[in-house]
Amino acid sequence: MQLIRMFSALLLAAGGLASGHPHAHDEHEVVARDSIKIAPGPSDTQIQFAPLPSTVDSVPINATLGYFVGDLGGGVYWVTDGTYSNMFLVSTHGVIVVDAPPTIGHKLLYAIGNTTRLPVTHLVYSHLHADHIGGASLFNATHPTIIAHAETLSLLASLSPRDPLRPLPHVTFENNYTVRVGNQTLELSYHGPNHTPGNLFMYAPAQRVALLIDVVFPGWAPFSELAISCFIPGWTAAHDVLLTFDFDVLVAGHVGRLGTKHDVLLQKKYIEDLHDSCVSAINGGFDVTAAIGPTVAANPGNPWAEFKAYFRGAVQTCADNTTSRWLGVLGAADVFAFENAYRMVISLMEDV
Which residue ranges does the record assign to the Metallo-beta-lactamase domain (predicted)? Predict the structure, then answer.
């Protein structure tokens, strides 16, 4: 209903433009490249984005090995290939692994094998997405107990055909679950949908290490469309939930460095700024008539075209205003500026 009301408002703002003359339109102004980049322009390979600030600096990745293993103390280690990251805990009775990104792949086996001779006895799925657990089948030989939220099991089980690279979890839960293996403890909790249904908060209390995947991107602006998240209010609220944990280090699932509470607070401010900028845009922050006029005139009776023109105006206004304040603060604030603003505008229309 919110979306319908917004569409009705933009049509009223456009006045009688729908009766305009098509010949007043320059056909090259409405060429659509794809569903997001709705204005013609250079390809992404030709765009010169802003220089990256030092906040994005990665740990050094050994060119021969192709991965980095960091010792977080107390038998906890994190592994990264510079783009993805995960974690494992070495106990007195076996290894707990959290996620198995296929980009790291067999290197994860090497990282664990070079650290301990103990077998992997437990594997935790943060959520269902294949880019984080698509390497799970690499551990089939040790038959680990796979643990996930009940929503993750339901979603994986619904795949047809099922993905053999992501074996179904053996143990599921609804709210809280504690993994105890030997002398290691990993606390799992669920606080509602955010990036996906079933996406977990994970915490190693003895080592003060937190894991939350696909929410915070330490040093960087969020990935496209706010990490392609399913429920933006929950994804936004996840920042506050994460800050209730008493952690020193955050393993975030992406980028080549660890996060801290400062990184969480900084991205939280970015999201709040993006939210406020998009609210301002759709509440009269740009000239709707000027933004949709040429498209309405060129496409009489086509409300989809009119709505796309409205999105272009609202989203670009939000993106421009937000980016101007975050360049040099978070890495690549300009790269997915339009896509992130687009997702926020959609959420403001649909999720509230």
Answer: 84-254
User: Any idea what DSSP says for residue 3?
Assistant: H
Task: Tell me which residue range forms the domain holding 153.
Answer: 61-259
Structure tokens at 118: 């103990």
| pTM for the predicted model, two decimal places | 0.87
* DSSP line for 210-242: EEE-SS--TTBPPPHHHHH-S-HHHHHHHHHHH
Q: What pLDDT, in 10s, does the model give residues 203-262?
A: 999 999 999 999 999 999 999 999 999 999 999 999 999 999 999 999 999 999 999 999
Mean pLDDT (whole number) for 264-274: 98
Is 278 within the bounds of a domain?
yes
Q: 196 and 138 in one domain?
A: yes
Strand partners, 69: 79
Domain boundary among 259, 284, 313: 259
The verdict on residue 268 lying in a domain is no
Q: Does 233 share its domain with 106?
A: yes
For residues 212 and 259, the answer to whether their CB atoms sit within 8 Å is no
The answer to whether residue 265 is domain-embedded is no
Split into its structural domains, the chain has a count of: 2
Q: Are strands 145-149 and 171-173 parallel, antiparallel or unpaired?
A: parallel
How far apart, in whole angstroms, are the C-alpha atoms of residue 36 and residue 313? 12
Six token digits for residue 99: 């996620």
